[in-house]
Amino acid sequence: MATELKTNDIERSFQDIPDDKITEAEQTAFLVDLGWHKGSNWDDLLKSKRILIISEAGAGKTYECRTRQQALWAAGEPAFYVELADLARSNLRDLLSHHEEERFDVWLVSQSDVATFFLDSIDELKLSLGSFEQALKRLAKAVAGQLSRVRVVITSRPIPIDEQLFRQILPMPDEPDEAATSEEFANIAMARRAQKSSEEQIARDWRNVALLPLSNAQIKEMAIREGVDDPAALLADIRQRNAEEFVRRPQDLIELCADWREHRRIRSHRDQVASNIAVKLKPREDGREKAALSADKALEGARRLALAATLSRKLTLRHSAEADREGDPTDTPLDPSSILHDWTQDERTTLLERSLFGFASYGRVRFHHRSVIEYLAAEHLLGLRAQGMPIRSVKRVLFTATAQGDEVVKPSLRPVAAWMALREDAIFDEVLRREPDVLLNFGDPESLSSAQRQQALRAYVERHGAGGWRGLRVPSIQLHRFAASDLAPEVKRLWEGGIENPEIREILLNLIGLGKMADCADIAYAIATDGKASEGERIDALDALIHLSDSRLTAISASLADDTSLWPNRLTRAGLLRLFPTSLSVELLCKTLARTTEKKRSVGDISWNLPRLIEHVDLSPDMLDALRHGLTELSVEGIAWNEKQWPHLASKRQFLLPALAATCLRQIRNGTTTPDVMRSTAIALRLAEREYDHTEPAKQLAAALSDLPPDARRLMFEAEDAFLQAHCPQTDPSKRYARLAFRRPGMHLGTNDADWVLASLADRGRSADDRAMMLEAAIRIRDDNVEWTEHLASLKPYVADLPDLIERLDQHAQPQKPSPEELRWQREDAKRQKHDERRDAKAHASWVLFWREIVNDPDAVFAADRSENTAWNLWRAMERSGEESRASGWNRRFIERHFGKEVADRLRLAVMAFWRKDRPTLRSERPETEKGTYLTRWQLGLAGIAAEAENPKWAEELSQNEAELALRYVSIELNGFPAWLEGFAAVHPAAVDAVLGAELTTELSEPAIGHSGMLQDIQYGAPTVARLFVPRLRAWLDAGKWRLGNNEDEAARANRLRQVVQILVQHGDADTTAHIRALAKAELVEGAKDAVSSIWLPVLMRLDAADGIDALEKTIKPHAPAKFGPAANWFSSLFGDRHGDGETYLSASGFTPELLLRLARLAYQYIRPSDDIVREEGSFSPNTRDHAERGRSNIVNALLSTTGPEGWGIKLKLAADPLFADFKDRALAMARERAAEEADAAAFAEADIVALDRYGELPPLTRDEMFVLMTDRLDDVDDSLLRDDSPRAAWALIDDEKIMRQQIARELRANANGAYKVDQEAVTADEKETDIRLRSTGSEHEAIIELKIGEKDRSAADLKATIKDQLVVKYMAAENSRAGCLLITVKSARTWLHPETGATLDLAGLIAMLNEEAARIEREMGDSLRLTARGLNLQPRLPTERAKSRARQRKASSEQEPEEAAVG
To answer: Do you find a cis peptide bond into 952, omega within 30 degrees of 0?
Structure first.
């Protein structure tokens, strides 16, 4: 783990990590996604002072930090590289060399330079939380007092505590407050503020960044440096094999390059994983390991830990005692000392410090990649199998049954099962039977044999081919691995058999292309050219043909250009992007584009993807030129100047402009700058809409103009001018020039353009109008060192033949004479300005004098006759300081900084007195025209109360009159209730009610207004304050006046009611909530009819889902389903608009599965999928319909997320409802998946996993696992009777059921293998006795076996009744005793009579009849238990039977080995 990694000076990139994504910063996929944005380099990064670099092991962070430190050092800067683990043990100076210490000392005394410290966690496992903290403290001590001059770069893992300590111990000090001055005070008092520079605003002191994975270009560059002689072939093979996950980190790429040099190919995924593990289990290169550990032993230990991590669901492993500090007790790590109990501690530590494991958090490690755990877990199970673990035991580990009886692969073990299926035929067959999906989705399908892949595909298609969409998704990388040409016959057979499900058709089409199945090309061609096929399917078919390089692609390309009926717009766009340039010529591309459209202002196929295609595909110079010409003509076709709209010139095909810009840019970069190219460039830039992100090509093209040679810049300037003149001739040369020069992103002329501008100006072959415009350009290109008049004079020789232009230059040279009116205006303005300056200077001087007076003689300014005036002026200054936040105008910090604590205290007393001397009027006491106004001096009183509230007990010291007076100031605070009101209300609740409560009642008695500030303040105020208003609000609500119109605005009336009800629901007690619910129900007895009654529907939906759905149905029932309308409005606001205040929480307990189904039916009836808006690609602003569709989806998703028997039943109902016909298969698939997850919910304890290693058996954790184990053990007993040394003969002699129980119990006990214990005749809760009870050692679950000897005098009817009356009712009543078996032994060929039909039954017939009864009871009891009947035939075997038995045993020996075999 401590190996230093070199990236050969490749410039790496960093990206800021969003605060909510820190914990994802080690996931390669997340980092690759970050990398789509343009990252920062070291130069950008080091503009900040505190930098936390988060990266995974092997990413190259150590090399990056060392290299950057060396570069800074070489440049003479104080830069130091230190390992955090070393700094935790030693002082900084002890870690510096002699030269470094000298430079450190020079820096300390410099008082100006910034020193950079790189603190690298090169060996994280040496760090604990305590030592990390110690390291930071040692650095802080070494640079004491200089933190503002220190730049610190720390490499870390995504652990929040690291960042917290970093900020705490090495903070960025606030900019020191400069000494307060009278000048500064006066400027603040007069609201004059100094603005920070934009650069200061942009620079960020703190940055959390990720070191981005290698890009494709970096992979190629690094591969060359690693000795790969054909990097293009390596990259192609990486893409072909989808091996990107193994090359994004430099360390992994180095290993892959070494493998490539040896094998000249990237091997299968299985080989890659195995090789990766072998490399990462090698001893550390630094040789610092605590114990010698062979490769084989390390691999064995890793396998055991991987299986333990998988079965226990613990993905972090304990490395040291640091793992036990704090944290969530339910998140305990796996303890390797329990699993590797037969290893020494040093051996375990040595294993965990090899690079197969990575740092997870302090004291914890984890496997470096999830796929490694899955592979190793499978390898360990295979190892146990090889040591004698029975196949039935292996199957019980991997497989289970749902509560509904579906046999599934445990979801948590699907990847493990897939890996095992590669090497164990019995597991392959079982996975194939239960879930063939697993063979495609997980492991390495490429490593399956040809026959196995055909079987897997056949089973997968047979399982999912019928019916409709169900949300299947085989990962693309797995399809690549699965596909091969030898699947062609199977694909053809399956396709010809007919497949309904479009997902399966898509998968088969993908396989045809990926597997290069030329024999199936006709299938793809038929679909691609079938106008009745779905667009998605046709695109898949086209992709397949492209993979096959099918010769018919040329014909398809021609058809694409000509046949509009066969190729609709969306399909055309997708097709041309795939076919160009290999099969679609430039000419056909342009012909096709001429009939193609794309929605305006969208990020669509053409505008986004075509420029990127043009940038990267192989195009000859002639093809580029033809493409540019074609795109240019298409872009300008039909354009006309429109003076009334902006932009005045707009293309009908705006979506082609990014592609045109990309083409021009490529030609310019190739050195082609002909007049035609520059004309196209001018058009691309002039017509581009720059407000959209996907015009990046236009931005790059504009940036490229500055590097053009002079001739090309001239051509560009002339082309743009000609283009504009052609569409809007401009005769004024100044305006003509301005529209070229002052509009981005066109040409911006500078002194470098002077030569060609002057040459054009002097060119007498040009028209006078053109030269007049060029003169405007020449006038504005002036060297700063040349005087204005000299510059103008120097231009005259170039226009000597044009008197008008000479005159123009003379006019420029003459000072402009203003008109009399302008002169008068200038005089008045100067007079006004002078007056303002005198007034401001006087005011400024007054504030300066005031400041000095306070500083020099505070007693005078706070004398009785001046105290109020001083308080007033200081309050005005405080108010303008911008620092008071919600402190109602009181800012002690500001006053203390300028005048000290004593003045602040005196000012506090002054303003405290001020609020008592005034009496603000309440809103209800003011005239109608002054309701919303207040006197400014009252704000000073509000500040006085805030100042007084510095005393925690201030409210307790107020009289009743003072309390009521203070409350009169509350409404003056504009940002909600003042901060002091919460504590005040606890002391004076009666006063709050008397003043503010009465004010509320008055407001509510008046006609409703658009917005009530008071109701808003209550709603968002402290709960203790809000609750004081509940009685008055409840009284107002109960009075019912809100039902009467009183000529009020209906929207205002509804809004007031909504605010009141929201407050009551939020802050009222249970009685209030119940009252609101009843009121809402009553108001909605006929549904919501108007704006006022409509406010009750979201309230009722939240408080009582059943009544809410009733009301919703009544509300929308009178209206026919429609795209827009009342139903869409309601489903939008209630369930779909996440930004509205009415959205309902469908996960609330009130929404039972039955109610969700009812709601889903309403949604599908009124928000019909057939009315949905079909959105083109790109961004859009969602409307009510979009929100309603989202609401419908939210309802269905909530329904599908329900669990348990009720959840299962409701999904079956949904699937059976014709309303959801299109959704049926998806619902069933999700129901089965949810049931499988529920059946696999339990995790195994470490002791259980140790027992698995020891005995080859896991204890059952669920009812179904208990049932399967019981039936397996009874199968084992049955099998044991086939052995030559079986107890069959001895058992046949037994007539006493108690003795028979003892014998069978002994057999079951001998085969327990630690998974269960056997009790015979255990006593139940009601003192009944069972025959045999198997108790799981890993859970509370039990299995009950009721034994009956068949020769006893019991009829078939008696035995049938025994199942329920005895086995179920007496012995299986407990919740944990829900697996049972009726076991019947026979030693003679006796028969029974069928209870209903009277038919004669042998043992097999009896057992079949009894199992029918067991299944009936299971259904009757809602599948809450599992039952079976078994027969044990003790009759003597015939010699032929014994011979057949021995043959069967020999044949099955590889699968079915004796249970007694020990597993070590």
So the answer is: no
Q: Where are the beta strands (DSSP E) in 212-302?
A: none
């040329």: which residue's tokens?
554
The C-alpha atoms of residue 1273 and residue 1280 are separated, in whole angstroms, by 10
| 1034-1060 burial code (b ≥16 CB/10 A, e <16) | bebbeeeebeeeeebeeebbbbbbbbb
Residues whose CB is less than 8 angstroms from the CB of residue 489 and which lie 6 or more positions away in sequence, other chains included? 519
> HEC states along 1091-1119?
HHHHCHHHHHHHHCHHHHHHHHHHHHCCC
The half-sphere exposure of 833 on its side-chain side, counting CA atoms within 13 A, is: 6
Phi and psi at residue 638, in whole multiples of 5°? 75, 10
Q: Which residue has the tokens 């190219």?
A: 677
Burial of 1160 (0-12, 13-18, 19+ CB in 10 A): buried
Q: Which residue has the tokens 């779905």?
A: 534
Q: Is the distance from CB of 884 to CB of 891 less than 8 angstroms?
A: yes
Contact yes or no for 973/888 (Cβ under 8 A):
yes
* Average pLDDT, consecutive stretches of 10 residues, N- to C-terminus, the chain (1464 residues): 49 74 44 51 88 76 87 92 84 88 87 86 57 85 85 75 75 65 79 50 68 80 80 78 68 77 79 85 77 90 94 85 60 88 90 82 77 92 92 92 89 95 95 96 93 96 90 85 94 94 94 94 95 92 94 93 89 91 93 84 70 88 95 91 78 89 93 93 82 65 88 92 90 88 73 90 92 91 83 90 89 76 77 85 86 86 84 80 59 82 86 84 77 76 84 86 86 77 87 85 78 79 86 84 69 82 87 89 83 82 88 88 86 77 69 90 88 66 83 87 83 86 85 88 87 87 89 89 84 90 90 85 48 90 92 92 91 90 93 92 94 92 89 78 46 40 33
SS3 assignment, position 1344: strand
* DSSP bridge partners of 82: 119
The encoded tokens of residue 1314 equal: 């630690």
Q: Where are the alpha helices (DSSP H) in 314-404?
A: 336-339, 345-352, 370-386, 391-398
Pairing of strands 115-120, 79-83: parallel
The residues near 689 (Cβ < 8 Å, ≥ 6 apart) are 601, 647, 654, 657, 695
3-state class of 359 per DSSP? strand
Q: CA-to-CA distance for 434 and 407, rounded, in angstroms?
A: 6
pLDDT for the residue numbered 1453? 41
Q: What are phi and psi of 317, to 5 degrees?
A: -120, 140
Beta-strand relationship, 317-318 and 115-120: unpaired
Is residue 1327 left, alpha or beta, with left meaning phi > 0 and alpha meaning psi from -120 to 50? left
Radius of gyration of the chain (CA): 42
Q: Are strands 364-367 and 1379-1386 parallel, antiparallel or unpaired?
A: unpaired
**Is residue 611 within 8 Å of residue 658, measured between CB atoms?**
yes
Q: Are β-strands 1332-1336 and 1342-1349 bridged in parallel, bridged antiparallel, or unpaired? A: antiparallel
Pairing of strands 150-156, 115-120: parallel
- Reported pTM: 0.76
3 state DSSP class of 1386: strand
3-state SS, residue 120: strand
3-class secondary structure, 908: helix
Distance CA(1379)–CA(1424), nearest Å, equals 9
User: What is the amino acid identity at position 593?
Assistant: L
The position carrying tokens 């099962």 is 417
Tokens of 21: 């994504």
Determine the residue type at 100: E
Tell me 1426's DSSP state: E
Per DSSP, the chain holds a count of helices (H) and strands (E) of 73, 18
For the chain, the straight-line distance linking the first and the last C-alpha, in angstroms and rounded, comes to 31
- Type and span of the H or E element at 621: helix 621-636
Tell me, what amino acid is at 13?
S
Closest CA to 248 of 210, 290, 303: 210
